[in-house]
Amino acid sequence: MAIAKAERLMNLALCLLGTRRPLSKRELRGSIEAYLEAGSDDSFNRMFERDKDDLRELGLVIETVENLDGEVGYLARRDSNRLPPVTLDAEEAAALGLAAKVWQQARLAGAASGALQKLRAAGMPEDVDPYEAHGALEPRIPVHEASFEPLMLACRDRRSVVFDYRKATAARPEQRHVEPWALECWRGHWYLAGWDRDRQAERVFRLSRITGKVRSRAGRFQAPVPDVVTVRETVASWAGETATRSALIRLRSGAGYPLRAKAGSVRELGDGWDELEIPYGHGLDAWLVEFGPDVVVLEPAELRADVMDRLRAVAKG
Known about the structure:
The protein is α+β, with helices and mostly antiparallel strands. Helices cover 37% and strands 25% of the residues. The chain contains 11 helices and 12 strands. Strand 5 (174-186) and strand 6 (189-196) form a beta hairpin. Helix 1 packs across helix 4 (41-57) and helix 5 (90-102) packs antiparallel against helix 6 (109-121). The model has no long low-confidence stretch (mean pLDDT 80).
């Protein structure tokens, strides 16, 4: 369905850009195969109006002209839809080259190389080699998750997706229906931010916890897409990075090194246990559960209760 619509929009755009005079609905219907297959005039009119609105939303300037006989025609003048020339200085070209180099190990490598070739043809300074990054740094963004590419395309095309997601504290994955907003890499892991339709709230998902295939769904987004999507800030908040309080826990000696790295103080209790004071932020209960019997929450009481609830849920399966 998505491919058929994209082909129909492309054909309509080519017709409107390729004509020197306004084309009527009747002429457009006779020129585009998908319109010829429309069951009725009403079906064609609805399809054409949607396509016209979609093209305008994508940035195509479509003029509506009425001739002497009162018939309405449409065209897209090339001079009105011509992009301004691309002008890049040496620093901007180097930044783009660095970004393209980052993706050389991902499936986006071909697209990145093609984009740079087009930029060169459009006026990138010839004395700048964007692949010659500054110094010996070799930037890389690892992409191992099979869900990355379909989610990236879904973010670009504004298509909702369905996938099975296993939370850190859950025994089995659950199906999630998400309107994807943005992907971002943070501390070696990829995260997706979007609107969870089932929970009617913004959520962030770690791609390594997505199981099975990502399936796209037709239809428009139900929730507005925010102007700024703060993936890193949200994940940092869940990890306790922006915590304003402290929690007191007992940790088994020789275990929980990530917790020890965050601890403000560590005190040996003996009998194979230590007492740690760690930052207490949103999501700390889920993180502590991952350490299982090696962690015992002492205070505050609400954190201890949350951890116990999660452990009971895992035990029930």
